[in-house]
From TrEMBL:
SUPFAM superfamilies: Calcium-dependent phosphotriesterase (SSF63829)
Sequence similarity: Belongs to the SMP-30/CGR1 family.
UniProt cofactor note: Binds 1 divalent metal cation per subunit.
Name of the protein described by the UniProt record: SMP-30/Gluconolactonase/LRE-like region domain-containing protein
Keywords on record: Hydrolase, Metal-binding, Zinc
Taxonomic superkingdom: Bacteria
Positions contributing to substrate binding: 122, 124
Active site per UniProt: 219 (proton donor/acceptor)
InterPro entries: 6-blade_b-propeller_TolB-like, SGL, SMP-30
UniProt-recorded Gene Ontology molecular function terms: calcium ion binding; gluconolactonase activity
Cofactor(s) needed by this chain: Zn(2+)
PANTHER family hit by this protein: REGUCALCIN
Amino acid sequence: MRLYSKASSQFRWLFLWRKRMNEMVQPQLLFDYTGHLPECPTWDAQEQALYWADILEQEIHRYQPQSGEHRVWQFPEEVGCFALREKGGFIVALRSGIWLADERGILGQKVCDNPNNPALARFNDGGTDHDGRFYAGTFWAPGDYKGALLVRVDVDLSAHVIQSDIHGANGLAFSPDKRWMYTSDTPKGVIYRTPLDELGEPGKREIFKTFGEGEGIPDGAALDVEGCYWTAMYDGHRIARFSPDGEQLEEYRLPVRCPTMVCFGGPEMKTIYITSTRENMDLEELARFPLSGALFTLEVSVAGLPKPRFKG
């Protein structure tokens, strides 16, 4: 006979309950929209609205679920990632550099140039940490070596390269206790975590989780209040949730092959918004997965962490 402590029995009960709930809950289409390469979903609690970028269409979108209002800002270059600002408007990582933009999407001050060669590497995944600093990673297009970088913009608008040895920067998220920064290198199929000191400065990066053939590869991500890591599994038809120890706890299947990123939102922060892509898909695949490029929602039982606005 196997004995369980009270705590382990409660955890096992919670795990089985959530598993049964997962089997009942399925992702739903957000609204009638199909993009090219939607990424960087960002929930604004003040407006109760969802923002996201379409990288290849050079756009930022805003959708308010309650009213159904859909607004689009056009930019002169690919929008790799962005964050909302405390003072209004955006901080935007375009191909050639990072800019501040106002509420109309008009570029103002240039914060810094792309530290990579912009002809070979555009900005990709990014967001803010708990202190309102902005991070933006690049994607090394040639793929001949890991030449991408992760850049941090502090509140004084100074920019710093904090990590290298990356092929495609993705999966940025920060733990609730501020001790860990998570990132992924999508083409390499690996999630990393990096310890942070009391000032938020990074230590030595370590491997958190690797993936094999057929599992999909980790793309954009978010963390929940229990410290669990949710990631879109590109080429995997699913999103998945991992414990702080790297154990897969939950997964949800999607009607698309390539989800790109997740974020939490909604009035209680228990709605997951999921972006997906149709980049480089031929007509045959689009006929099989016509919702590729759409946005989905998923109601879950645990709340997520909000994305702070950029304080610069």
